[in-house]
């Protein structure tokens, strides 16, 4: 397990100015050349910004609130395209040769390809590393991007990295990595702003975690309209309840129990904590020093110069 831990800690590469686990190099061509289906929906985000929340919302809307099928693990229902990059199941085999990975983990690209449209694809890829067919405009699936205050995102990512990616440093070290763009899929602004630039495109809907917290029914209606699958007010109400933090925290299909247990089982992390952690806005205030908040605010101001992005 120690060998795997060290590999996971050190094995990063820089591609197109973004930080990735080394395995991305091996699979990049497959992502670039993926055949895209216009009936699919792409849920794109920087990690820890409300991706799972958005995926569950989108999947439910696309599947006409099928709560029975909705009990299937979200990893099957809304596959994470580059999961094989983030979570190399071969690491597991080193610790237990008889480990039988779920198909969406063993070969996440193959799994996405094997699914019948409409697939609700999850990806953390920055816009410029999406499949060529999306970038050159030859395929235009509907895309939903979700963003979140980077200070809350950073805290959530810190806990996530402890829970699932065996990060060993303290919170301040993690903040430094985050600001320097040295966390997976970073730098943050280079990720958010190219999607923000496309927010008026008819194929892209830009959401914010904070708006989902403020008025979830409104966002549900907006997403349903964007997906051309309007819901009755009763359905909006039912879905709002289903998507509450309390309900999702209890829901084993979306709360990442499966992945957390695998990590614990293979002794890959120190464990502790839950994927559905606090689900709040402004939680950074209780955790970041005044000095670090100032560093973030300066960094935000500098990166947002000349843009109309508001956190
Ligand atoms: P916290 O760690 O701040 O609690 P992602 O899915 O992109 O990894 O994002 C995970 C973050 O979204 C976590 O944030 C998690 O608690 C939060 N989240 C997930 N479902 C939520 C919900 N229904 N309501 C509020 N927050 C939610």
From TrEMBL:
The record's subcellular location field reads: Golgi apparatus
| Every Sulfotransferase domain range | 39-307
Q: Which domain of life is it from?
A: Eukaryota
Which family does the record claim for this protein?
Belongs to the small GTPase superfamily. Arf family.
Protein name, per record = ADP-ribosylation factor-like protein 3
Q: What organism is recorded for this protein?
A: Tenebrio molitor
Range within the parent protein: 635 to 945 of 945
């Amino acid at each position: 397990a120690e060998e795997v831990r060290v590999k996971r800690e050190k094995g990063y590469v820089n591609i197109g100015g973004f930080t990735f686990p080394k395995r991305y190099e091996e699979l990049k061509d497959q992502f670039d050349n993926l055949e895209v289906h216009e009936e699919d929906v792409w849920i794109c985000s920087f990690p820890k910004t409300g991706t799972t929340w958005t995926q569950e919302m989108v999947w439910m809307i696309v599947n006409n609130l099928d709560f029975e099928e909705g009990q299937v693990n979200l990893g099957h229902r809304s596959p994470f395209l580059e999961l094989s990059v983030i979570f190399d199941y071969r690491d597991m085999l080193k610790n237990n040769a008889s480990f039988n990975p779920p198909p969406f983990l063993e070969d996440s690209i193959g799994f996405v390809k094997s699914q019948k449209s409409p697939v609700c694809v999850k990806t953390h890829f920055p816009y410029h590393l999406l499949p060529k067919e999306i970038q050159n405009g030859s395929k235009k699936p509907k895309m939903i991007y979700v963003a979140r205050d980077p200070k809350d995102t950073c805290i959530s990512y810190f806990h996530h990295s402890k829970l699932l990616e065996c990060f060993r440093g303290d919170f301040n070290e993690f903040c430094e990595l985050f600001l320097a763009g040295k966390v997976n899929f970073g730098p943050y602004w280079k990720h958010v702003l190219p999607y923000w630039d496309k927010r008026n495109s008819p194929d892209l809907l830009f959401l914010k975690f904070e708006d989902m917290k403020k008025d979830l029914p409104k966002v549900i209606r907006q997403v349903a309209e964007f997906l051309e699958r309007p819901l009755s007010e009763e359905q909006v109400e039912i879905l709002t309840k289903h998507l509450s933090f309390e309900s999702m925290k209890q829901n084993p299909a979306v709360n990442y129990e499966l992945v957390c247990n695998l990590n614990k089982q293979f002794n890959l992390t120190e464990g502790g904590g839950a994927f559905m952690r606090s689900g709040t806005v402004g939680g950074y205030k209780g955790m970041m020093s005044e000095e670090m908040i100032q560093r973030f605010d300066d960094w935000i101001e500098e990166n947002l110069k000349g843009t109309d992005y508001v956190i």
